[in-house]
Structure of Peptidase M20:
Amino acid sequence: MNESWAETVARATELRRELHRRPELAWAEQVTAATVRAELDAIGLAWKACAGTGIVVRLAPDAAGRHTALRADLDAMPIPEATGLPYASENDGVMHACGHDGHTAALLAAARWLHRHRSSLPGPVTLLFQPAEEGGHGARGMIDDGALDGVDVVFGWHNWPGLPFGRALCPDGAVMSANGTFEVELVGRGGHASQPEATRDPVLAAAAVVVALQQIVARRMSPQQAAVVAVTSLRAESAATVTPGSASLAGSIRAADDGARTRVFRLIDEIARATAAAHGVAAEVRTVVRYGATVNHPGPAAELRERLSTVLGPDWHDPAAPTPVLASEDFSYYLQRIPGAFALLGTGTTAPLHSADYDFDDALLEPAARLLVGLTGAPEPP
């Protein structure tokens, strides 16, 4: 394989759009995995399956230096695409609304370059093509299946429409938040809507709980402590003349660290139960821990920032951008296990992530692939 860097990036663009046309949900990335594996075969790289649809590639395993891992995610989201693009999703109700098609294509571009220069690698390199980032704990599955065996440091990145193209975030410490979900079931006594005194109305109680939960961020947490409590659904189905016997609400939370998440969960339980009792109904609260905060290690983060400066220029950092961002990432599992760092790269797209109008910005493929290559110590692309 003796292609130029420009040809490598052009191939990555083709692959990105091919992946975009055929998105698949977490743990169901069969076609996606087959596409990546076929491309690795064409490059001449040996690979092995990991955590089902995941893929691990090892380069220069006998090199004497630091063993570096680079990660991309494979899965898409259950969102009907509305972009109208010629390469829009062909799978009804599923689309790449978070840019994992771009992350995968950029790592494949880096793979091509690293294979071409494998004899110049100072240390071993592992490429991680990970399934099920979108709530499926795919990173944990990869780790359990040995993906980090022998690895000294791990790097990853995510495209970020909230930042302008050419800007990035890569702090020491938390770069993305911890998250979780909650459900509150309110049980009262149903009856005829004309006789409220004979009922214990769970609908009124549910509405009161929704309002009362807003005090967590506004009054129960320090203003310096970033957190989000979002009630995203409320259900109390009934006929127009019937007060139902039960109602339920659910939502998600974000917190800057795992300890703050524990406090938010405790407050949700306390407030929901007390508010329900004040309305004469009972509350059952269920909380689910999802991903931990994505916490960069200082040494690798400094290395990644230096690389961002080389690739994006000295003005890559936006000092006005707040950190941590309150989205979450299962890259946190890797950083809980070994040193590493994660960056958010600004993109020229205007639609937000998880939007039916979102599309990954192909102009980001070249700097992202260049960033990954440099973290391994391989020769710099032209």
